Amino acid sequence: MDDPVREIRATLESAMRRLQPHVSSARIVGSDMGQFLVVDRADRGAEIYGNEQSGVIVDPAIREELQGEITYPSLDLALDAVVRWLGGCSLEEMRPAG
Hints:
Layout: H1 4-19, E1 25-29, E2 36-41, E3 44-51, E4 55-62, E5 65-66, E6 70-72, H2 75-86, H3 91-94
Antiparallel strand pairs: 1-2, 2-3, 3-4, 4-5, 4-6
């Protein structure tokens, strides 16, 4: 794909499908290059944005309070961390090793 906006949208849609079994709601927010994915389960949630070149950023939340951005080197690692977060792990357990 040569259209970066469509690439972002396709990546977010794929991430949303992968997270579907683990979330109670998932939605893509924003437009153009500012699109990001918001997922929720019970009182926890996360915003997921970025791209493979600069890293994927996850901003976990408890209720509506964001807990601080964590950068992952790949989408796979970021989505694994989101699943762990929604399942109840601590912020420290979410951080990438290294």
